[in-house]
Amino acid sequence: MTRVIVLLCLFLTACGGGSTPPSALTPMPNKQTKSLPNSALEAPLAAFIQSQNAPPQSGWDIARTDLNNDGRLDAIILFKSPHSYWCGWDGCGMLILQANDTTFTPIATINNVRGPIYISDQRTNNWRDIIIRVTGTNFPDKNIVMEFDGNTYPNSPLLGPDLEVPLSALNTQRFFR
After folding, report:
1. Closest-CA residue to 144 (of 123, 127, 125, 158)
2. Which of 20, 110, 133, 164 shows its CA 20 to 30 Å from the CA of 59?
3. pLDDT at 35
4. How far apart are CA 45 and CA 97, in angstroms?
C-alpha cells in the first residue's frame, strides 16, 4: 500500500511540470457585464402592459443580453399570452428594454415576431442587429435584419431588409427556441 502511495505521489509530481511564470498567464478580459435582477423588470413591464391596455396577467418569455455594449444586460421580452391579445397570424409582440443603473427603459416594440430570434455581433449605431425569421405569412420565408436607427429598432420585420449572408456566417446568440 505504501508503494502505491509513493508511486502516486511521484506520478502527480512529475505531471505538475513546475510552476508557470506569471508573465505567461493569459489575462482575463476587464469588461464585466452588470446584470440588474429580473425583479427590476416588474415595474417597467407592468407600466408597458398597462399602457397597451393589455391583460395584467399577460405571459412572456425573457432573454437578457448586452445590446449596446455598455456592460449591462438589456432585456428582450417576447409576449405570448393571452395569445389573442399579443399575437396574430404573423407573430407576437416583442419589447426591448435598455438596462440602466437601477431600472429598465423601453427602447423598442417590435410586432410580428416568432422565435427564434438571433442577436448578431454586427452593430448599427453601436447597437447589435436583431435577426428575425419571417415565416408563415404572405411573404416568402426569410431572415430580416432589424437595425437600430439611433433611437429605436423598426416596429415590424415584415418589410425589413433581407439578411444578405447565410445566418451561419454570422456570430449570433439565439433566443426563444
Report:
1. 158
2. 133
3. 83
4. 9
